[in-house]
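Async update (no meeting this week)

Hi team, since we skipped the sync, here's where things stand on the single-chain job. The sequence we agreed to prioritize is pasted below, unchanged from the tracker. I ran it this morning and attached the output directly underneath so nobody has to dig for it. Comments welcome in thread, and please keep replies under the output.
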Amino acid sequence: MSEARPATRPDLSVVIVNYNTAEETTECVTTLLATTAAALDVVVVDNGSRDDSVGMLRRTHPGIRVIEAGENLGFAAGVNVGVEASVAPRVLLLNPDTVILDGAIDALLAFARAHPEHRLYGGRTLRPDGSTDPSSCWGEMTLWSLTSFALGLTTAFKRSRVFDPESLGRWERDSVREVPIITGCLLLVSRADWDALGGMDERFFLYGEDAEFSARARAAGLRPVIVPDAVIVHAVGGSTAAEGTSNGRKMSMVMAGKATVLRTTWPPARARAGVFLLEAGAYTRALLETVRGRRPGTWRVVWSRRREWRDGYPSAKAALFPASERSASTLAKTEDFGKNPH
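Output:
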């Protein structure tokens, strides 16, 4: 059930997908409304939360619309539901575990109006301690970046433009720059472009959908760009922590997303090579964990579950998200897709 549509057409529809993060999502909406001068249509899609998310949001923010999905639709499908219900000419995807700094959304809108040629826009995310969180954007996967991952170079030379190219180097996201991937943490696009692109690919359940969307957008002539004046604070994965998801399982989800991007955007032979390099990178890190005696070991879990993630979605969904959990797993994801952690 959703609340009534706004009486007047707003400047921007903001779509937030929520799962069991009542306090975080409420704070996100509170800061969004308090720091934004533009007229907003706020749509929260709740994917079957078991906490008081729906009730709290409706009590504290009666002017927003809350759509109860009744189950865990996955991130891509949840976003599509929210955008379908939106009414503004532009749509902003926003993570629920974010705090909006003063004027951030207005700055994003102003840049989009002044520079309509880009058509896809992201901002700058900070960690709670004020340091840069690079996850607002990433570089695209290439055979070289995956080879670097397979050989462990992305870990040995973290944020190197040569050996860790998907990280985009040590750039602090503090200047205007076109990038390959804008993440769903903070993503602005016109409703017309969204509809023309067909929204998010619902074959993805969690992770990777924004990378695939950005690839389709670039192929259609959109030029994704980072707007440094649009600054938010990203708490990073509130409901992941709430669910107690292990690092190994979470990274297996990330790898499933990566494998799906490769299989949906690369030619078949090249995609197989890319997935092989993902597996090789998992093996390299699992071996290092074994040598160092690390337990339980994120990458040992990822390597042991490679048959579950290497084919990507939708087959990975059943393995990584059993039916009993698909109504109770995380939707407030962190944007780890481009990271290659230790």
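Quick observations from my side:
The chain has two domains: 12-140+168-240, 243-320.
The first helix runs from residue 22 to 35.
Reply here if anything looks off.
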